[in-house]
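cache lookup: miss for this entity combination. No prior model stored, computing from scratch. Input as submitted by user K.M.:
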Amino acid sequence: MAKVLMKGNEAIGEAAIRAGCLNYFAYPITPQSEVAEYLSRRMPEVGGMFLQGESEVAVSYMLFGASACGARVFTSSSSPGISLMSEGISYIAGAECPVVFINIMRGGPGLGGILPSQADYFQATKGGGHGDYRLLVMAPASVQEAVEMVMISFSLAEKYRNPVMLLGDGLIGQMMEPVEFPDNLASEPSNKDEWATSGMDTRGTDKRNLVKSLFLDSVKLNEHNLLLKAKYDRMKQEEVRYEPYNIESDYKVLVVSYGTMSRVCKTAIDNMKEEGFEVAMIRPQTLFPFPEEAVNKAASKESCRVVISIEMSMGQMVEDVERCVKGKLPVEWYGKCGGDIPTPEEVIDSVKSFYKEYI
Amino acid sequence: MAYKLYIDTNRCKGCGLCVSVCPKNVLQISEEINAKGYFPVYQALPEDCNFCATCCMMCPDVAITITEENEETVEQPE
Amino acid sequence: MGKTFIKPEALSDQYTHYCPGCTHGIIHRLVAEVIDELDISGRTVGIAPVGCAVLAYNYFTFDFQEASHGRAPAMATGVKRVRPDLAVFTYQGDGDLASIGMGEIVHAANRGEKFTTIFVNNTVYGMTGGQMAPTTMPGQRTTTSPFGREVKTTGMPVKMAELLSTLETPGYITRQTVIKPKYIAKAKKAIKKAFEYQLEGKCFSFVEVISTCPTNWGLTPIEAVKWAEETLLPYYKLGEFKTPD
């Protein structure tokens, strides 16, 4: 299969089509408008549906309505737009509909900046919207990985009847890398006759379907929440994905990092290895469910002195890392906001200075 | 054609709209409370009813139905 | 002389939670009658609002979705764009459509989305206890305009039918009422026409229905009808504001 050089945002759009998703609703926002621009041309070519809505709020409900009647749908946006969609995401999760959301993160809070960030970790993994729900969150570190994650996201969303979010950053969206679209990842459309409002005639039944998230009765609402929780518990059992790096060595420091930041960390780790200073990394590929066991196990290494969460934020994933390390080792944070991605040298400096504190 | 009119006293909320629109003043609010605590309507002058269905049209609760005499009355479940 | 009258099939048997004399019941029934007559129950999807009609889905026997406050036109857009063969309608109150949902309804109408909106205008937020709405009349007392709506600080009531009819995109925009039998037959015709335009794939259709809210107006159902006729109908004029032809 041919490799194509593609811009991240465009590759993401193409990946959705290859996965059998032919419906896209979105709103322009930097740094991901290219997804919409690409799909506005590409969707008609494949007989798909493209609609630019009037706001992210409206788009989140267009997605809800379309998903609720049984169509495979997705959208892309960036941080402030995802905030606007958050109520819709809560409704979609509460009503158990499958929708895929792509968040190409930019600087925040507020209008923030248009350069890359990783500052939506809390929003994605702890629930940006109200109520008890979780998103299955995946974080690619390359355009190829983004393509593969997009392609499996639809069947995951349908498996759990839950929204799935891909957390990229501005760099993943904007950079061009060689990419191929694996055939074997095209996901099968699921049978939604049990619950989708696809029209009784379409289902050949006289039993109507109702998609809602309101449960005024306290007992029923509790049962519903237990049902949702069971899904998230199952995700924790079945969907954890992560990449260990240099984990077989006698590493002195454990780094936890994801997305673009993890690539810089890899370079830093390689450089330090050449000097004889071993550092390992756990790169979560799913942020929810978080690779809790893997981080905990990696923090149990005899030689390891400190765990550092390195992220382009003011320290969000570090709280999950702390929780997983369970006090075995000190947990520190290094990061930067504003859009300047820390260099390998800056990462090396921070790793070495934290290590010095804990020899 | 013979018709019969049926008032489901459990559906009726005693709003009185049907009473106000009946062209023949057939309907009145009864003094017997229903299970929900409303005073439902009844036909005070049934012989004057010409089955125009204006009351049916006005009723927000589909509490009044008219069927043909030889048909079973469409009974609403409790 | 005389005629039969039975509950339409598209309406469920459930007793409604609406207040005595609330015109929601009449409007629900008219929609159900139209759906029966057009025989489209098997491909209809209703979208319920947040408002008194939040439980509307309990009163119909076909597929239904529940929207968040104001966003039903966006959900309807989603459904109609992926399943143009389904007959889709939103059913919304004043707060839902004319306040928080103003953006969604204007844009759906402007894009000419081919679904039908039933807009129940009773000049207050009913479900939450009678607060002021964009459609509240000048001087009308509500729980958030206890001294009467002040035009100086809150403007004049919004006329949604007129507003939407100014859009260039073709549509069917009408205002009706169900407060008296003489208006009810016309309202049903308008609702049927709206659905027929949708089934022809012609345009967006919008039926505003002037309604009563006896509980929050502090009037009996019969007094409420009188107040609506005397105060609302002169301002919210009935008729067709736009047709696609």
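stored under new cache key. The interface with chain A takes residues 41-45, 47-48, 54, 57, 61-68, 71-72, 74-79, 81-83, 85-86, 103-104, 107 of chain C (CB under 8 Å).
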